[in-house]
Design goal:
heterodimer; A: 185 residues; alpha+beta; N-terminal domain of TfIIb; 3 domains; three-stranded antiparallel β-sheet; three-stranded mixed β-sheet; 29% helix; B: alpha/beta; Dimethylsulfoxide Reductase, domain 2; Barwin-like endoglucanases; 28 strands; 24% helix; globular
Chain lengths: 185, 788
């Protein structure tokens, strides 16, 4: 560091109030925005409310480093509310589950369970419940029912259209009709 | 009204502020002074649960003072149509409509129909024309009544009414915006109906800057209503098959086939759906597998199912990105219901309360239930975040927007698309050799989506393509191409066109600054990329804009087509003067000046002969729990409200003198799983609090910053006290009525924890849509923490 780096002299060179670059430390001056050195930027949509603000997802080394508003969106013009602005924390935070948790009947603690085994067990329970509770016809009128009231599903408003579509398709083919989501609330 | 847009849809609210900057009045009518009120040009406090009286007062003001947009009303609504001689309304029947059967309870709607042969009086003088029936119905909804019932001074009300009227008509339009402050009532559907009547009278429907905007609350909730994961609907608002009404395909389409308007093609919509689901197995000979559809027989909504669960009649439950232990009304009942299940599957980003109820719910903590006694087997599956999967959300404006995968999901996290696809695959493998009749539909289901990558992720784009539909020539361009002969397949008719030309239209991203103000090249709106529905009504019966200032779509006589700033919501080549000939069907059975093509008469309904179960016109009824007696009718509350009478659903007695209401905060999201687990958001809103007026604080000795316990017959909830002028006591029927406000985001898990406000509410539901009355109930409030 020579005389030229003296803050007072730097101040005379274009930062008269000494509140800007003239007062920067070397560390501050060397900082770059996470968004500047991302490997790629992916277009997304905020997962919180239904305004549908555009989001730009910045990725570096295979991880999300920042999520900001998308200035191109005619709806949001690049802005995000506090929730949307917290999206990076939402998707990268330590609160996130990454392993299946299983509680056996009457159990007092979670246990581990491999994902494929969990899927298999869930499929078995759906098939068994359905068989036990199947209503082919209304006993009083003989009307065709072809359904089960033994199982139910709740959720969909935080899911994608494609997910809701396949859920409704599969459930309906299985005869499960107690299928609902947050729209009912 | 019924909305706190600045807090709950903050980025959308920027447009309200832009309008305000240009001189638009912004009127916020709400029980609380919120951040929206702070930015409005006027806040009007009113009693939670009295909005129909207020809106009815607007109708009264418009009709009494001749402020309706007469040309629009006569041409585009059913104002002139004569109603049956047998019709009688609440003024004649002390709060009931004609046709009431207390045994069901329900209404026989035959007396609500139009009189015989389509008689109409365009001069609007005939005593039985809809306009005069409407006038008589709302005759007692005077400014004085609004003051008495809502607590809004009559002169304030009249000023608001005049502002709205002055800002409607040819040259100006007024928009109404609402959220669950309108829907979460035992008369919620009728709230919306009253708003529709106001906007039709003022000529605001289908016009730029007009209309009624429902502000929905979740990123995908519009899509989950359209597609839908709801019990009573098939994709595109087709009804579910039901017993005994629709035993076969002919019965299902029979009603609708002769209908004028878009529902005249119901057969094409449902056949194309069945072809999408069952492919080659669905043929004309087997009614396109219509028999494979399960039948509904009544109310199978989530609250009914929760009651059945509590009674031990439901074995298994899958909960996908929702948290009913905190987010549904009557939390204790919800959690007790979970404890009666044999098995429970929860999929979420974090360990939400619904997944851990067996070890740490309030009922376990208090000792009322013991973990070891709760049998429920629980699977908690980690879900992929929105950045870890491809897919589309439909926002509150019907706009589909694609989000792209940025990174793969970590660990065992998987998308819900992965879950449902592989669940279906495994179930089909296990049932491959089955000879049971009930297994035929799932074995024959089309379920062959391409998968990719080490996790075998199914292609979301392939699913979108199925939703869009295909015909003999490939992807469909729109629902106009759907056929009833089995040659087209389409997963959701109103979404057809979203993958036109084999291009993902929902992924279009032409920057807003490069487009005109409608911005049609960003995403894709259903149906057909129309941005304002019923926009035919933005032009007069001759097809000319009502004014230059409000031009939107119009008839181009030289070109022989409708044109303008948006896709016309009208057959493109139907001239304004078109008159249907004999034998005309569907859209062509309606004339060229009938904008409302989803109604059989092509008109906006001021009076609704069908579509709602509790009255062709809205009447003010009190909430099920209310400190106020209905001054209008002996029938105080909605006679058809669902309020199950059972020991685990107790109601308040007179010992609960205050009005209770709940709401959202900007910094938290619904039941808290996506916000109370995050440090940033937990820091911004760290703790549950209740809002009370200084007068109520004095009456109940509540201290700002201290503790209070709010109680109802269902539960007790403790919260920090915020004494604020934002909640003013209202004078209703000559005495002060106090309101207590509570955000509902809190639960016992996360970084920021607290009691759940929804525990305070019982099950009281609207009879049309079975939505809970969560915006108006009664309570008591006392200083101090709740007893342990």
């Amino acid at each position: 560091m020579g005389l030229s780096s003296w803050p007072l002299l730097r101040q005379f060179r274009g930062d008269p109030r000494g509140l800007g670059w003239a007062a920067q430390s070397r560390r501050s001056a060397a900082l770059t925005a996470r968004t500047a050195d991302a490997d790629e930027v992916v277009r997304s949509v905020c997962p919180y409310c239904a305004v549908g603000c555009g989001q730009l997802v910045f990725v570096r080394d295979g991880a999300v480093t920042q999520i900001e508003g998308d200035p191109d969106s005619p709806i949001s013009r690049g802005r995000l509310c506090p929730k949307g602005s917290a999206s990076t924390q939402l998707v990268t935070g330590p609160h996130r589950l990454s392993r299946v948790r299983y509680r056996r009947r009457h159990g007092t603690e979670w246990e581990d369970l491999p994902l494929d085994r969990a899927l298999d067990m869930i499929a078995d329970r759906i098939i068994a419940t359905r068989a036990r509770t199947w209503q082919e016809r209304d006993p009083a009128t003989g009307a065709l029912l072809r359904r089960t009231l033994g199982l139910a599903s709740l959720g969909g408003a935080t899911l994608d259209n494609e997910e809701n579509y396949l859920l409704k398709k599969l459930y309906t083919a299985l005869g499960a009709i107690q299928i609902e989501n947050q729209a009912r609330i | 009204m019924g909305s706190n847009m600045a807090e709950c849809h903050p980025v959308g609210f920027q447009w309200v502020l832009e309008a305000r900057e240009r001189g638009a009045p912004v009127i916020h009518v709400d029980p609380r002074f919120t951040r929206t009120s702070a930015m409005a040009t006027r806040h009007v406090p009113l009693r939670a649960g009295s909005d129909i009286a207020f809106l009815g007062g607007l109708v009264n003001h418009i009709v009494t003072n001749g402020r309706d947009f007469r040309e629009y009303v006569v041409a585009y609504t059913n104002a002139a149509t004569l109603v049956s001689e047998d019709y009688a309304g609440p003024d004649d029947l002390d709060g009931l409509f004609s046709g009431f059967d207390p045994a069901r309870p329900g209404y026989d709607r035959s007396s609500w129909q139009y009189a015989g042969t389509g008689e109409a009086d365009p001069t609007l003088e005939h005593p039985r024309c809809v306009f005069r029936v409407l006038e008589r119905h709302f005759a007692r909804y005077t400014p004085a009544l609004v003051e008495e019932l809502c607590g809004v001074p009559a002169d304030v009300f009249t000023e608001v009414a005049e502002t709205i009227c002055a800002n409607s008509g040819r040259e100006r339009t007024t928009a109404l915006v609402y959220s669950v402050g309108w829907t979460q009532h035992s008369v919620g559907a009728q709230y919306i109906r009253t708003a529709a009547i106001v906007q039709l009278l003022l000529g605001n429907i289908g016009r730029p800057g007009g209309g009624i905007l429902a502000l929905r609350g979740h990123a995908g909730i519009q899509g989950s209503t359209d597609i839908p994961t709801l019990f009573n609907l098939l994709p595109g608002y087709l009804p579910m098959a039901s017993a005994p009404a629709t035993p076969d395909l002919a019965a299902y389409v029979g009603d609708h086939q002769a209908r004028p308007g878009s529902w005249g093609h119901l057969d094409a919509y449902v056949v194309s759906l069945l072809k999408a689901w069952w492919g080659d197995a669905a043929t004309p000979e087997n009614d396109f597998c219509f028999d494979w559809l399960p039948r509904i027989t009544g109310d199978h909504s989530t609250y009914q199912t929760a009651l059945d669960m509590a009674d031990g009649r439901v074995e298994g439950f899958l909960v996908l990105g929702e948290n009913p232990a905190v987010g549904s009304a009557h939390g204790r009942l919800q959690r007790r219901a979970l404890a009666r299940l044999d098995w429970l599957v929860v999929r979420d980003l974090v360990e939400i309360e619904t997944a851990t109820f067996w070890k740490d719910s309030p009922e376990v903590t208090s000792g009322e239930l013991r973990t070891e006694d709760i049998a429920t087997e629980v699977f908690l599956l980690p879900a992929a975040a929105h950045t870890e999967k491809d897919g589309s959300f439909t926002n509150t404006q019907r706009l589909l927007q694609w989000h792209h995968q940025a990174v793969p999901p970590p660990g065992d996290c998987r998308s819900d698309l992965w879950f449902v696809y592989h669940l279906g695959r495994v179930i089909r493998e296990k049932l491959a050799g089955s000879t049971e009749r009930r297994d035929e539909p799932v074995r024959a289901l089309t379920w062959d989506y391409p998968v990719a990558g080490p996790r075998a992720e199914p292609s979301a784009e392939a699913v979108l393509a199925e939703i869009n539909g295909r015909g003999p020539d490939g992807p469909l361009a729109g629902y106009g191409e759907l056929a009833a002969d089995g040659s087209t397949a389409c997963g959701c008719w109103i979404y057809s066109g979203c993958y036109a030309g084999g291009v993902n239209q929902t992924a279009r991203r032409r920057p807003g600054q490069d487009q005109h103000w409608v911005a049609p090249d960003w995403g894709w709106a259903w149906p057909a990329n129309r941005r304002i529905l019923y926009n035919r009504a933005s032009a007069d019966p001759q097809g000319r804009p009502w004014s230059e200032r409000k031009r939107y779509v119009w008839w181009d006589a030289a070109a022989g087509r409708w044109t303008g700033a948006d896709v016309p919501d009208f057959p493109a080549e139907m001239a304004p003067g078109y008159v249907p000939g004999p034998g005309a069907t569907a859209e062509w059975a309606l004339p060229g000046d009938a904008p409302f093509g989803m109604q059989a008469d092509g008109r906006g309904w001021l009076f609704a002969p069908s579509g709602v179960v509790d009255g062709p016109l809205p009447a003010h009824y009190e909430p099920h729990e209310s400190p106020v007696t209905n001054p209008l009718y002996g029938q105080g509350a909605n006679p058809l409200r669902q309020a199950p009478r059972r020991p685990d659903n107790p109601f308040n007695d007179t010992g609960h003198p205050y009005v209770l209401t709940t709401y959202r905060l900007t910094e938290h999201h619904t039941a808290g799983g996506m916000s109370r687990t995050l440090p940033y958001l937990s820091e911004l809103q760290p703790e549950l609090f209740c809002e009370v007026s200084p007068q109520l604080a004095a009456e109940r000795m509540l201290v700002n910053g201290g503790w209070a316990t709010i109680s109802t017959a269902r539960a007790q909830v403790e919260a920090r006290v915020l004494v604020t002028d934002r909640l003013a006591p209202l004078v209703v029927q000559g005495r002060a009525v106090h309101q207590v406000g509570l955000p509902y985001h809190w639960g016992w898990r996360g970084l920021s924890t607290g009691d759940s406000a929804n525990d305070l509410f019982g099950l009281v539901l609207d009879p049309n849509v079975h939505i809970q009355e969560g915006k108006a109930a009664t309570c008591d409030i006392r200083p101090g923490r709740r007893p342990r």
